[in-house]
Amino acid sequence: MPGPRRTERYRALVSTVPEAGGAPVDGVPPVLRAIVDDAALVAEGPRPDMATVVDAHLAARAGDVGGLLGSLVVPVSRISELVAQLVKRRPAGPMPIALAVDTGLGGVPKALSLTSSRAALLDPRTVEMPAPHDVDTVWLERVTEFVPEEVVAVVEPRRPDAEGSADWLAGVRRVVDHGCRPKLRCGGGRAGAFPGVHDVAGFLALVVGAGRSFTASIGLQAAVRHTDPDTGFTHHGWLNLLVATLRAQAAGPGEDTEERIGEALRVTDGAALAAELAAADSAAAVRLRSLFSSFGSTAAASHGAELARLGLL
To answer: Which domains can be identified in the chain, with CATH numbers?
Structure first.
């Protein structure tokens, strides 16, 4: 049985996942509310300008499909910059943020102290950090020391380039068992950064089987699986991940869950994926979003048009 700290962390983990019931708000169906985390500040390449990112994020939130947006992902090292920009702009309410640890765990308490003192501007939802693929309980205990129970700890075990690493999935299992939310990195600047269908299916089967939520990040450029003509990299679609999770939670005894998941991940027909998601009843939709918490995108405002074409908005 989990101890008190782990139990409380699991309660926090569940409570920060958006509700998926009720009627559409601003044209965004409940199953898609707050599903896109704005990762513009952690994009690879030149350091993004804080003022530009904040203006774009606030404009997207106020737009026709602003309900798609979840948190702004901000590096711990840049939290003061974010506060300075928000003080100038005086948003109507506190901005949901995900703190990305880039200074070591020791920098987390100071960053959270600053967000606490600026509660009218900032609403910290998660603290996200990378970890070794063989992350152990000693390291995870350090995470619980630095991340308070009211904030969800999101941990990304490092996945080796080789497909089918048992050590990586064992690390994901330890993250889940400790009560943290695992993150699945779906791409990057090299071919090996893109997990294959086998690895993604194994990840989803593990977390869905455990009944824990997860976050996906980087590489999900579009809703549907596709190959980038410039790089030749095949990208997973985040709609594929949603439908794969939906199938995983519906798998019955004796069924090959990973095979069901893999089939959904390989689909390139966006209309078919959209129809399958739209056909889910409200109970299945609520369960789905209790598992798939969000995904990070460096172009968060761009997903509305694609979803509209697919008939989901």
So the answer is: 4-15+28-300 (3.20.20)
Task: Please give the chain's pLDDT, 313 residues, in tens.
Answer: 344 344 434 433 443 445 554 555 567 999 999 999 999 999 988 999 999 999 999 999 999 889 999 999 999 999 999 999 999 999 999 999 999 999 999 999 999 999 999 999 999 999 999 998 779 999 999 999 999 988 999 999 998 876 767 889 999 999 999 999 999 999 988 888 999 999 999 999 999 999 999 999 988 989 999 999 999 999 999 999 999 999 999 876 667 889 999 999 999 999 999 999 999 999 999 999 999 999 999 999 899 999 999 999 8
What secondary structure does DSSP assign to 30-79, as a single string?
A: GGGTT-EEE-GGG-SSSPPPHHHHHHHHHHHHTSTTGGGEEEEEEEGGGH
Question: Running DSSP on this structure, what letter comes out for residue 302?
Answer: G
Task: Specify whether the CB–CB gap between 182 and 156 falls below 8 A.
Answer: yes
Residues in CB range of 233: below 8 A, 6 or more apart: 187, 191, 194, 227
Show the tokens assigned to 112.
């959270």
